[in-house]
Amino acid sequence: MNKKLVKLIIPLCIFILFAVILLQKANNRYNKTEVIEAMVNNEEENDKIDNKSKIDYSQTSWNLQNLYKSEDEWNNELKKFTSDTRELKNYVGKVTKSKTHLSFALDIKEKLDIRLDKLYGYVKLNQDINKNSYKYIDMKEKINRVYKEYSNICSNLELEILKLSDKEYNKFMDDKKLNKNYGMYLKEIRRSKDYYLDENSERLLSNTSSISSLPGQVYELFKNMDKKTNFNSAEYKTALESSDRNERKSAYQNEFIAYNDNINTLSGLLIGQVKKNVFYSSERGYKSSLDMYLKSDDIDEKVYNKLINTVNDNLGSLHKYVSLRKKVLNLDKVYYYDMFTPMVEVVDDNLTYDKAQGIIYAALSPLGKEYGDVIYKAFNEKWIDAFANDNKVSGAYCLSIYGNHPYVLLNYNNSLGSVSTLAHELGHAVYEYMSSKNQNYFNSNPSIFTHEVASTTNEALLYEMLIKNAENDQQKSYYITQYLDLIKDTLYVQTMYAEFEKTIHELVENNKSINALVLDDIWGQLLTKYYGKDYELDQLAKVGWSRIPHFYNSFYVYKYATGCSAGVSFAEDILKNGSDNYINFLKKGGSDYPIQVLKDAGVNLTSTKPIEDTINKFDSLVKELDQLVGK
Known about the structure:
Blueprint: H1 19-30, H2 32-35, H3 71-89, H4 99-128, H5 134-162, H6 166-173, H7 176-191, H8 199-207, H9 209-212, H10 214-226, H11 233-240, H12 245-260, H13 263-284, H14 289-295, H15 301-313, H16 316-329, H17 353-363, H18 369-380, E1 384-387, E2 397-399, E3 407-412, H19 416-438, H20 441-444, H21 448-468, H22 473-509, H23 516-531, H24 558-577, H25 580-588, H26 594-600, H27 609-629
Parallel strand pairs: 1-3
Antiparallel strand pairs: 2-3
Helix pairs in contact: 3-4, 3-5, 4-5, 10-13, 13-22, 15-22, 16-27, 17-19, 17-21, 18-19, 19-21, 21-22, 21-24, 22-23, 22-24, 22-27, 24-27
């Protein structure tokens, strides 16, 4: 959920000729909302804050002048960047002439990439706290045009590297300095070799990249500007958590009807996204769209399938959770709008931002002083824009800009959920910070796959601390429900999303008809399967797929689920054996492929053990909660 501007989080011009892969990575790199976004199941943490006059906004808002003192300075830098790209362009046609040529060219590219990240970051951060301003939309268009020209230069250079024979390439990689600084970047280019087309075809695909991003762009316009409901996101979330069933039902209907009224348009957008993926994967010779996207992280398709199969084989624990919710809330059936109201009375319902900081320090103390020092910087050096306002986007994310500190966006609302979101985003921020301090630019950008591990580890540590230190059964029960919801929303629900995404791509790949009714039916069947006999599926709930923006960042959601299982595993290990192993994992950043980095740290996601361990944790928490509420 930046350098890492957007985004998964992923080398900037990773073989830009590969337009679809570039699109995914560019989105992850330059739209960090998606890259390292808080997992709140799309019910955004955006409540209005009471007593706003008491908030010192000067200490809880970004200072973007650290990036550029003014928009004029940004415009001047954009012009200078455009001019300076000519130096890199001079290497086109001769970048592989010698090790010196290649090293000099990549050094220039690295410096340009860092500057481009900063340019993009300034626009995105401003746009997200001024969401109704067309000025930043125009600025983004300006930088997109510059980026297109720059990416063409990078594409030409990468093509020359791609065309090297294996013998010639290995000679370059024998250079220890070259391998250390640029090895991962060069490996990424070479891994695409089998899927490269002829030059004319590559040029054509590259030129379609802006068109292929349209489904997601149009969806965002609908969601942020054209969707009409009686509630803003904060009010909707509050209503959905209400103890008054009629209130939450009314809010649910109002929200979902807004999507249902536009369901054919929304289905057209999502189907367009899927068909775009199928086109690119087919043209390049991948086995499937899923195969194409997993290749970007060097992930075997078995990892994705094992996740879905393992969760499907263990849905009994989730069914027990839904049945317990039905019993505790004294419901006849559990509907969608019953899944978010607290099962037990809320405790700590006025957790001010100052209190949240103290909780975070305590919960993350097992990670040690070095980690704690970075948290201190985040709170005291204006890394965080904390509170909601009418001009600010909903949700939460962390965006990192190499050479600068990370930026965290929140919509803090004094709830425990907001504290959890804060812990989540700080997991991303510290990961980026430690990675950038210990790796050069090309190796510092962790995959989204591992990013979600860092964020979920923090949330797991938060709930472990709260449960352990609960003062009474009421507190303990409430904290257990929150930990359960974290695992439910991150492991189970995101796996359901991943299964939906895989299913609809396979339908298109097999030339099956697909429309809004088909999408509704698939979604409804999955809801029934995942939530069990005590869940009642109503017709309106079937349009839930249309509310998931992550589907426009294709095959992304499974990373939340794998991240959750790895994060829970890490938390258990940290509490038992200390944090040294975990801190070393953070410092490695993107210096190796995610599966290997995790395996080196003791978490093997090619096996089902981390997933099964997390499901066992969920099951034990359900049983403990059942005992506590039954007293």
